[in-house]
Amino acid sequence: MEHRSWVGPVLRPSSGRVSRSSFIGNRMGLIGSKNQLMSNEKFTSGSNPKNRSRPPPAPPKGRQFISLSHLNQASAQDDTIVIALYDFAASSDRDLELVKGEKLQILSNEGDWWLAKSLRSGKKGYIPSNFVALVDSLEQEKWFFKTLSRKDAERLLLSSGNKVGSFLVRESETSTGAYSLSVRDSDSAHGDIIKHYRIRSLDGGGYYISPRMTFATLPELIHHYSQRGDGLCQRLMAPCTSLAPQRPWAQDEWEIPRESLKLVKKLGSGQFGEVWMGYYKNNFKVAVKTMKEGSMDPEAFLAEANLMKKLQHNKLVRLYAVVTKQPIYIVTEYMANGCLLDYLKTEEGSQLNLPKLIDMSAQVAEGMAYIERMNSIHRDLRAANILVSETLCCKIADFGLARIIEDEYLAQEGAKFPIKWTAPEAINFGVFTIKSDVWSFGILLTEIITYGRIPYPGMTNPEVIRNLEQGYRMPCPDMCPAELYSIILRCWRNKPEERPTFEYLQSVLEDFYTATEKQYEAEPQP
C-alpha cells in the first residue's frame, strides 16, 4: 500500500483562537487483547449518564519507586499468588521472565509493574500486571473479559479469528453483581450477529441463565452450555480469541535517550517531519515521529507533551515517550493498518460492509466524546487522522502540538489548511470549538461512507467557501442511508450551538441498527 504524508490532529482548550497550523500525523497500531480492551475505560459515554467514563487515571507509579534492594527482600506478609496468562520476555535486568501457566508470589503491587517471585525458578523481578491473574479467579479464565462493554464485546466477537459459537462472559453494565454471556450466532438475513444473555446470581450463591437449571459457579455454567446448547442460540464452542497485550509503559521511561530507539520502516512524511515504525529497546514496537529541527521549541514542546500524555482513552492513540533534544522524537503506540483514509482504499478496507463503516464512525465519536468531556478540542478531525489497528479498532491521534510549531517555520514551509473539513466559523474567524469539531465529524462521515472520497468532489477550496456561505451542503452520497444523512446534516447546522454533542453522536451511531431490538435474549425454555 502506498503510504501518503498526512497531517495529525490537535487537542486544545475548548475555546479561543487557534493558529492555522498543522502537525504531521502518525501511523500506529494496537495489539488487541482483553486486557487492553478492559483497562483504559470501564464505561463509555452515551445517552445514559451511567455510561460516562471516568477522568483519566493518575500516572502509574512505575518501577522507579521501588529500589533495587527490594529485589532481595520478600514480603512475609504478602502471600498473593498469581498465574501467568501469557509469556513475557524480560527487557532489562530488573524484569522477570514469565512462562504462561507458571505461578508467582506478588511482593509489591504498586502501579502497572509488580515485583514478583517465580515459584518455578525462585527468581525475583518486575512483571507487567496485565499479564497475570489471581490463581483460581475468573480473570484466569480465557472466556472472562470482566469490564468489557457490550459494544466492544460485539466488536471483538465479530472480528477475524472468531466464528459462530465463540463466546465471552463480562460483568453486566447495568446490574451490579450480575454477568452477561455474549455469543456469536448466524442469521440468514443479517449474517453473523451477537446475542446476549443475562447470567443472574442466586441469593444463596450460584448462577443461572434459566431458573430451571442453576450452577454453583460460573465455570460450571460455562462447562454445561459448552456440552449442549440447552436453549441458547448456539452451543458454546470456543472462548473469544485474544492476543497478548502490550506490556505497560513504565512511568520512569518518559524522556528517553535517542539511542534506545531503532527506526525500521518509514511510514510517511509531511511538512514537519517523518513517521517511522520502530522498536524501543529492540523489543517494544512503536511509532516514532521525527520532527524537523527548528519546527518547535523543545521547552514548549515538553510542557505541551506532559499535558497530552494525561489524555488516556481506548479510542485515542497513546503517547508513550519523547526525545527532547533536537531533532525531537515523539514515541506512540503503533497502529498496524495505518490511517483510516488509506485503509478504506485497500482491498480489505473497500470490502467493509455498511454496519462496519457505521461502527467505525461510532468508535471515532466515542473518542471525541471523551475529548468533549475533557473540555478539549481536536481542530483537525478527518479520516487521515484516524488510525486503524489490526483488529480494526479506530483511534484518534491525540497530539496537541500545532500551537507550538514555530511561526517562522510555518511561514517557510507554507502550512496547508484543511478547508473542506473546517466549519464556516473557523474558516471565517479562526475560532475553533468542540462544535467546529462536530462539523468536521460530519465531513468525516462522508469520507467513511464513500470509502475515502475527497469531500466536495470537483470543487476548489474557494468554491467550497462561497457555496457554504450561500447555504450549500454536500448531497447525500450514494449508498448512504437516509437516517445517516440526517445525522450528517445535523452536524452541518449553521449555528454551532444547534449541532449535536459527541455524546449524542456516539449513542445514536452505536444504536444505529439496534434501537428497536431487545437488549437481551429471552431465557432458554425447556
SSE blueprint:
Blueprint: E1 7-8, E2 12-13, E3 23-24, H1 34-39, E4 81-84, E5 103-108, E6 113-118, E7 124-128, E8 132-134, H2 150-157, E9 166-171, E10 179-187, E11 191-201, E12 207-208, E13 214-215, H3 218-227, E14 238-239, E15 261-270, E16 273-280, E17 284-291, H4 298-308, E18 319-323, E19 329-332, H5 340-343, H6 354-373, E20 376-377, E21 386-388, E22 394-396, H7 407-413, H8 424-429, H9 434-449, H10 461-469, H11 482-491, H12 502-510
Parallel strand pairs: 9-14
Antiparallel strand pairs: 1-3, 2-20, 4-5, 4-8, 5-6, 6-7, 9-10, 10-11, 11-12, 12-13, 15-16, 16-17, 17-19, 18-19, 21-22
Descriptive account of the structure:
- Among the domains are: 8-19 and 339-510, Transferase(Phosphotransferase), domain 1 (Orthogonal Bundle); 73-137, SH3 Domains (SH3 type barrels); 143-239, SH2 domain (SHC Adaptor Protein), CATH 3.30.505.10.
- Helices cover 22% and strands 20% of the residues.
- It is built from 12 helices and 22 strands.
- It has a 6-stranded mixed beta sheet, with helices on both faces. Strands 7-6-5-4-8 form a 5-stranded antiparallel beta sheet, with no helix packed on it.
Distance between the termini: 54 Å
Q: Indicate the CATH class of one domain.
A: Mainly Alpha
The name of the CATH topology of one domain is: Transferase(Phosphotransferase), domain 1
The count of β-strands is 22
**Largest sheet at a glance?**
6 strands, mixed
- Which regions have little confidence, pLDDT < 50, spanning 5+ residues? 1-33, 38-77, 408-412
Rounded to an integer in angstroms, the radius of gyration calculated over CA atoms is: 24 Å
From the helix content, strand content and strand pairing, which structural class follows? alpha+beta
What would the average pLDDT be, to the nearest integer?
81
Protein name: Tyrosine-protein kinase
Keywords: ATP-binding, Cell membrane, Kinase, Lipoprotein, Membrane, Myristate, Nucleotide-binding, Phosphoprotein, SH3 domain, Transferase, Tyrosine-protein kinase, Ubl conjugation
Catalytic activity: L-tyrosyl-[protein] + ATP = O-phospho-L-tyrosyl-[protein] + ADP + H(+)
EC number: 2.7.10.2
